[in-house]
Each structure stands twice: as structure tokens, then as C-alpha cells.
Design brief:
Blueprint lengths: L8 E3 L4 H8 L15 E6 L17 E6 L5 E5 L1 H5 L4 H11 L4 E3 L5 H9 L3 E3 L6 H6 L3 H4 L19 E7 L18 E8 L2 E9 L10 H8 L4 E4 L4 H9 L3 E4 L5 H9 L4 E2 L12
Parallel strand pairs: 2-5, 5-6, 7-10, 10-11
Antiparallel strand pairs: 1-4, 2-3, 3-4, 7-8, 8-9, 11-12
Amino acid sequence: MIDYHHGALTPMSEAGETISSILLNRYYQFDNGVEHTMIIAITAKEPSLQSEVDPRFGRAAYFLIANSQTGEVYAHDNTEGIEDDNGAGTRASQLLAEYKVDVLYTGHVGPKAAEVLDKAKITYHEHTEGTIEEVLAGIPQEELAATAEEPPKETVAAPENGTVRLAIPADSDAGLEAQRSGHFGKCAYYTLIDIKDQQVQQVVAMQNGGHVQGGCSVPVILLNANHVNKLIVAGIGGRPLQGFRETGIEVYAGVGQTVQETVDLFLNDQLSPISNDQVCGGGPQ
């Protein structure tokens, strides 16, 4: 999981109130409180909301990364991209994919960069002009709501009494043989393992369709709706951890390459509940 408070992304503390007034009041929610976050990237000439949009993509001076839910804005200094002899656009596309960006606003995107953005399912808007603040204020309500989906529902029946239902994020539907996913919210599948009397009773691969756009409460609702009471993750932020705790789902810090390896460690009491000092940095998610 990316730590948005360290490394290449710099928090723009002065931008918090401004971005909140632009986006947070227009933030889309279902009546039942399901949240949907959009991570927005804008190419900028300077690390400021008053900066003009940089018309370049791969060689933009900065990428400003905004979280529509929390109102936080982060600046990525793109000096390395500017100095790239070749492949700056492709490199920038891969960077935004790593930052889990949903929407990009910029001047122009080349064909190779566009291919990477399409593969990463990042929507991009070209010919963007004005200041960063103006761009954010001009994002249509429909786009902010584009992440909305039906609330997660039960797809796996409740286990019998005395059974622990364990959830492990996975990269595929291969059950116990699946590789573990490093990102609990944007994993392809959750492998659900029912355990009773220290024996595996059932294994179900449940597709994760609810968090593709980063709403940090959706996995909580999805797993709770499917009767999970323990979750093993590689990392997690403070907000979703609190959500899981409030619904009675105990979260463990896990290791192991495959789901099977992680289950074995759990059965041997070699995993512990995650503590507050183990949570990831709380930037855009």
C-alpha cells in the first residue's frame, strides 16, 4: 500500500480547506451511507491550487493528486519525468496507476501513454485549461458520482454456528492456491474460508466489484454482508480499519505468498490482530 505521506508525494496542507469546499459538499452518497471516493490527478506547473494546468502530460512539472472524499491534495514533483529522454508519458501513466488514480486532467496524452491509461482504467480528459482550482470546481457532478454502484449484497450464505469466516484478498479465483493481493480494497477477489474446529470447511472466491474506484467503506460493507468475521491483509489505512472494527470484523496483519500459506499461519496462531501503529498513511485511498 502506498504511503501518501512520505516519498515522492508531498501533502499540500494549505489546500485542505479549499479543496473541501470545492469537492466535499458535492460528494456523492447513497441513502444508506455507502461512500465512493474519486482520486483525481491534474498536471500542474506549480504545486498549488492556484497553479495553471501544465499542458504536458509525461513532462508536466507536477501532478496534483486530490481525494474527493477527504479533501486532501498531494503534489508529485515530476523532475524525473521531465528529464526522461524517452517514455515519459508511459512512465507517468504507470505512476498514476500506482497512485490508484481514477481520473486525469491534462493538456495532451500521447498514444503510448493512452494505452497504459486505458489498461489501468484511468479516464483522461485532454485540452484542460485554467487553474487547478478552476478544474476541480468544474468537474461535473455526474463524474463525481460515476463511481456509484449498487450497495454490496450477500452472495455467500452465512456459515453454520461456531464457524469462523476468514477473508483474504487475492489476485485470482484460484481458492487456496491463489496469490495474495497486496491491496485489500482493490483486490480482484476475496477468498472466503470457513473454519470450524481448526478445519477448513469451505472455500469460496468472491469477486470484489465494489471498491474498484476506491471507496474505503465499500469493502467493509461487502465483507460484513457476506458474514466475514476475520480479515487478513498486507496493509490497511486507519479509516477502513476503524470501519471493520465497528462492524465486528477483526483485522489481522498477514504474510505468505498464497492464500493457503496465510491460512496455515492463521491456524497455527502465528498471526496477530493489526495494531494502530501498523496502519498505512492516510492519504488518498
